[in-house]
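Researcher: Quick test of sequence recovery. Tokens follow.
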């Protein structure tokens, strides 16, 4: 299965709605990137994607990336410097565990959406929406359908 077809149009809309709701009361930015497969370490790849899609280009360094590699059944959550300076050390683990509960049951849309909303709640505490805030990064899902075994 290719990354771009892993979620149906309706499921993608549900994930985008979760992003919109999560960002509604915060200046933080949330994005989702889905790849068909990855080689190497999931955190290294997610960090590389974070930079590639310019998640660090926010005034308060408060971007969050949810990264999924569907064939590998791996995912990572990456928060920028501004967030990691303010949240508890186990913050990302709590979100990851909640998502894993859903993923084990095949509930990928629900797990991802719930993780996004959990991140939004935390962002709201540390980066509240202020008058004049603008959406600094596009609210869209990004995909890479490359199969790193050499088949596209």
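Model:
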């Amino acid at each position: 299965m290719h990354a771009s077809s892993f979620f149906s149009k309706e499921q993608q809309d549900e994930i985008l709605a979760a992003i919109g709701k999560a960002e509604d009361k915060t200046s933080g930015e949330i994005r989702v990137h889905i790849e068909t497969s990855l080689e190497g370490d999931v955190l290294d790849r997610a960090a590389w994607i974070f930079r590639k899609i310019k998640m660090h280009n926010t005034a308060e360094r408060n971007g969050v990336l949810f990264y999924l590699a569907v064939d590998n059944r791996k995912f990572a959550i990456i928060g920028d410097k501004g967030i990691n300076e303010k949240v508890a050390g186990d913050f990302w683990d709590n979100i990851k565990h909640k998502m894993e509960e859903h993923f084990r049951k095949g509930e990928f849309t629900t797990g991802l959406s719930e993780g996004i909303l959990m991140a939004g709640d935390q962002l709201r505490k540390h980066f509240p929406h202020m008058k004049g805030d603008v959406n600094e990064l596009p609210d869209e899902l990004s995909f890479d359908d490359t199969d790193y075994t050499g088949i596209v």
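DSSP finds five helices and four strands in the chain.
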